[in-house]
Amino acid sequence: MRLINKFGKTTIATSMVAATILGVANVSFASDSSASLDENAQGQQGQDRAIAFGNTKNPKNVIFMVSDGMGPSFNTAYRYYKNKSGAKTLKPTAFDKYLKGTNRTYPNDPKENVTDSAAGGTAFATGHKTYNGAISVDTNKKPVKSVLEQAKEQGKSTGLVITAELTDATPSVYAAHIDSRDKKDDIAQQFYKDRINGQHKVDVMLGGGSKYFGKNNGNLDKKFKRDGYDLVSNKSELNNSQSNKVLGTFSEKDMPLQIDAPKSNPLLVDMENSALNKLSKNNKGFFLMVEGASIDKAAHPNDITGVMSEMSGFETAFDNAINYAETHKDTLVVATADHSTGGLSIAKGKDYKWNPEAIHKMKHSGMYMTKQIVAGKDPEKVINEGYGINFPSQQLDKVKEAAKELHKLPKEGKGEKDEKVVAQTTKLQNAIQKPINDESHTGWTTNGHTGVDVNTYAYGPGSSKFKGNMENTQSAKNIFDFFKKDITSNQNQQ
User: Fold this and answer.
1) What pLDDT, on the 0 to 100 scale, is given for residue 85?
2) Residue among 211, 120, 145, 141 nearest 452 (CA)
């Protein structure tokens, strides 16, 4: 078994979580002009809140939230996780009330019928199905317009908030056009160089991936600063940012999982709040994409502790977005996933039981502990500091042995991209996580993606357009239709 980021460079880090730049001329976009805009009914769920919208039928603002890798079993598991052990009735999560339908996630790929994040993101950002690895280009590698670009053309403010690298697949599909998601330096260059009406495409960029904006890629951060952007690298600086335009990179690569993050780092909800404060100053409205990317990052190595931590962070951000929409009647909130990851099973073995209480006791994720040991820290100390449940001595011996074998490999001339290093790092993480997966009765079927339909949640004007089982392209088509109406009036006034 191996854990490799299929379309990215294989490193020790990526093993644990799994040419030419195309121009942007002649960009096209998909639209469903035949769809009805009748939004008088919001459905049985959330009817009490829908009443407040009066005659507002078309959103001026859109908050589109992506829970990367979050399949339906994740939502169910999180409901168990949120409730007390032994509860006879499970209280709903923040998501449950706003369930509208499901999305079909398959790509348009001649070799594969299960999507990656690039093809999935391109679908709900542009309305076009494409091949795995493509960043907002169609199957002929022709650029296709994103809803963010449409928003910017209409004078709206735009934002990308993410817990992974800003150049990761999902944020990239909104502001770049390139044939391969691997070309992260080129993607960052497009973020800076490509303009709409003489302006940068994205006003607020918050996430990880500082390495793609620094000196090794043309000092893009300094160029953004000269163009009026605040540069921030921690929570305090973000809170003190005064400009309506900001580039925040809070880690060299992906941001740490919520359970492992230092207090100096902003959480997803912190970044979302900062973005909303800045974007909402534009009377023409805004488009904001918020991604809980690390649900997927933790699911690839089957890290249930990391998954539940990131689910909690995404739920907080979703609830915060709903609260914003309740007081800004012209705002639509949509949350969905690009695919499911890992094939999460709630209960494994012969017992009809899943035990989230064990997960609650964990102090760090398996990903974090693996990185610590890879960096040379004592395995026993790392396990004692990270585990909240009993760690069998025999299993600790297996962790020590896996770490010993891993540390031998560089001496043999094996670099971090070497397949043996990747395989051994995966073996180490599996050994670390086995006790928590066993104690919680958590099962997994794969280290990759699955092809299941994913849930869609929505609230606000236009939310009924997301009902039923839809192609993942329909999200973009709906938003294009909304933005074609070019609602610039203050709809908060009845």
Assistant:
1) 83
2) 120
195 forms bridges with which residues in the sheet?
200
In a domain, 8, yes or no: no
CB-based burial of residue 38 (10 Å sphere; 0-12 exposed, 13-18 middle, 19+ buried)?
exposed
Tokens of 418: 């070497």
> 55 burial class (0-12, 13-18, 19+ CB within 10 angstroms)?
exposed
- Per-residue HEC secondary structure of 116-170 comes to CHHHHHHHHHHCCCCCCCCECECCCCCEECCHHHHHHHCCCEEEEEEEEECCCHH
Mean pLDDT for all residues in the chain: 89
Residues whose CB is less than 8 angstroms from the CB of residue 318 and which lie 6 or more positions away in sequence, other chains included: 65, 94, 95, 333, 335, 457
149 and 200 in contact (C-beta within 8 Å)?
Answer: no
Average pLDDT over every residue of 183-206: 98
Q: Is residue 383 part of a domain?
A: yes
Q: Is the pLDDT of residue 336 over 70?
A: yes
pLDDT at 385: 98
Would you state the structure tokens that stand for residue 25, as one six-digit string? 């001329």
What's the pTM? 0.88
In CATH, what number is assigned to the domain containing residue 104?
3.40.720.10
Regarding whether 139 and 47 lie in a shared domain, the answer is: yes
Q: Are residues 53 and 135 in the same domain?
A: yes
62 found inside a domain: yes
Reduced to 3 states, what is the DSSP secondary structure of residue 34? Answer: coil
User: Is 475 strand, coil or helix?
Assistant: helix
Q: What is the CATH number of the domain that holds 392?
A: 1.10.60
Q: Would residue 316 count as lying in a domain?
A: yes
**Angstrom distance (rounded) from CA 357 to CA 480:** 44
Domain span at 159: 27-345+452-484
Q: Give the count of domains, the chain.
A: 2
Among 453, 330, 409, residue whose Cα is nearest residue 39? 330
- Is the pLDDT at 50 greater than 50? The verdict is no
pLDDT top residue among 425 and 87: 425
- Amino acid at position 49, single letter: R
What is the distance in angstroms between the CA of the first residue and the CA of the last residue of the chain?
A: 59
Tell me, yes or no, whether 231 and 287 share the same domain: yes
**206 lies in the same domain as 240:** yes
CA angle 376, 381, 387 (to 5 degrees): 115
Report whether pLDDT(181) > 90. yes
Label the pairing between strands 286-291 and 61-66. parallel
Q: Which residues contact 265 (CB under 8 A, 6 or more apart)?
A: 234, 235, 250, 251, 255, 256
* Catalytic (active site) residue 117: yes
Does the pLDDT value for residue 108 go beyond 80?
A: yes
Q: What value does the mean pLDDT take over residues 133-144?
A: 98
What is the Cα–Cα distance from 475 to 491, expressed in whole angstroms?
A: 22
Catalytic residue among 117, 180, 241, 365: 117
How many beta carbons lie within 10 A of that of residue 364, not counting itself? Answer: 21
